[in-house]
Design a protein that fits this description.
Its cofactor is FAD. This is Pyridine nucleotide-disulfide oxidoreductase. GO terms for molecular function: dihydrolipoyl dehydrogenase (NADH) activity; flavin adenine dinucleotide binding. Keywords: FAD, Flavoprotein, NAD, Nucleotide-binding. Belongs to the class-I pyridine nucleotide-disulfide oxidoreductase family. The chain is α/β, with parallel strands linked by helices and about 475 residues long. It has three domains: about 10-45 and about 100-150 and about 280-360, FAD/NAD(P)-binding domain (3-Layer(bba) Sandwich); about 160-275, FAD/NAD(P)-binding domain, CATH 3.50.50.60; about 370-479, Enolase-like, domain 1. About 30% of the residues lie in helices and about 25% in strands. It contains 15 helices and 21 strands. Strands 1, 2, 3, 4, 5, 6 and 16 form a seven-stranded mixed beta sheet that branches. Strand 1 (about 10-15), helix 1 (about 20-30) and strand 2 form a beta-alpha-beta unit. The radius of gyration is 24 Å and the shape is globular. The mean pLDDT is about 95.
Length: about 475
Amino acid sequence: MVTVSEAVEYDVVVLGGGPAGENIVDRTRAAGLTTALVEAELVGGECSYWACIPSKALLRPALARADARRVPGLAGSVQGPLDTAAVLAHRDYWTSSWKDDGQVDWLDSIGAHLYRGHGRLYGVRKVAVTSPEGEHHVLSARHAVVVATGTRAVIPDVPGLAGARPWTSREATSAQHAPGRLLVVGGSVVAAEMATAWQALGSQVTMLVRGSGLLPRMEPFAGELVAEALREAGAVVRTDVSVEAVVRDGSTGPVQVVLEGGEILEGDELLMATGRSPHTEDIGLETVGLTPGDWIPVDDSCRVEGHDWLYAVGDVNHRALLTHQGKYQARIAGGVIAARAAGVPELDTGRWGAHVASADTQAMPQAVFTDPEAAAVGLTLAEAERAGHRVRAVDYDLGKVSGAGLYADGYRGRARLVVDLDREVLLGATFVGPGAAELLHAATVAVAGEVPIARLWHAVPAFPTVSEIWLRLLETYRG
């Protein structure tokens, strides 16, 4: 920890210590640049303590039990409830009980300087920091300031909601007990994953989805299969419903949700999973001509438009609200900053160049750890058609693959490739089924590498694995 009372100069100053910010620090320090990191909460950010890590720790036992129940000879041994206390303790282990000592030790080990406190841009190339103790610091950047402040959960302007103490993703991933009845508003990844986790941990879950289905950013069949499985697990999934008001009396009493039309539902906790907004309302954007509270627009190198020294990586630039994409952007931007600091005369800005975040728009993968898992990369069929591509969707029943049948009795799933008919390469792929997330990286390589279908035909999947789905899809395409 560095404590100073006057302005200090670094090569790079990073505002926000989540995964994207940490990766910027890692890349710039590896390039020999002096780097300071400013973080008001825990180093490691949302992903480490309230999102990816704790949610997967909660979900893994649920998915493992579901898989085991589909295996003959094992199914009868895993019919009882999960040990909720053990699952929560395991979750706490993976979040380091919400302590960031290990992350701070890592920063020290690479020679980065940590400033704890609220950071704000303070004009060109400067960041002002106010520590929890009230100390004030001004940091000056020779080469770059990087904003990596992420997002926060949106709480809609619904009458009574603010006073009802709703859960957001933070409370849903850090709760110390399973609520008896959990109402989930939303159909997004957070909503679907947390409904899966808490239903498995003993809560009675009711999902209230404003749209027509779950996981609206994926192929429609993904949300349909996930909703079907949630219902079979005992959850209630209702679509095309709208919350008009929320009522809660007292600090521990039940919460009531009033739906459009007057119907009232009651639960012990209410999770609002209705989107994210940029965490930019009080970070000094106005001092550099940007609008507080807005997403920060960037070019493909993640440099902020109109500012040759300012970068924004991760959720805050709205290119891709995914941890792995934020880390990818940080690797790209870190390389750009290092190259410009070294006076490299020309950056590699070709379509898949080292200094361009091409995957954000062309090969972005996402895995949803519901039961069944849903995994996708690139464009959906509808997105490809809207973009003007001449495409064909190639579908196959995952349950008809030998490896899937051996993986689980009654395996249910589906796969789709979106093929560009003019170039005969993949624009997108989606897999839904138990363990389907492990199919995703092969598809990501195929999409990012623009591997011709004719060449993919020679990538022979091992028998009998679930990956044999690739052969079946290509056979279907070739006819």
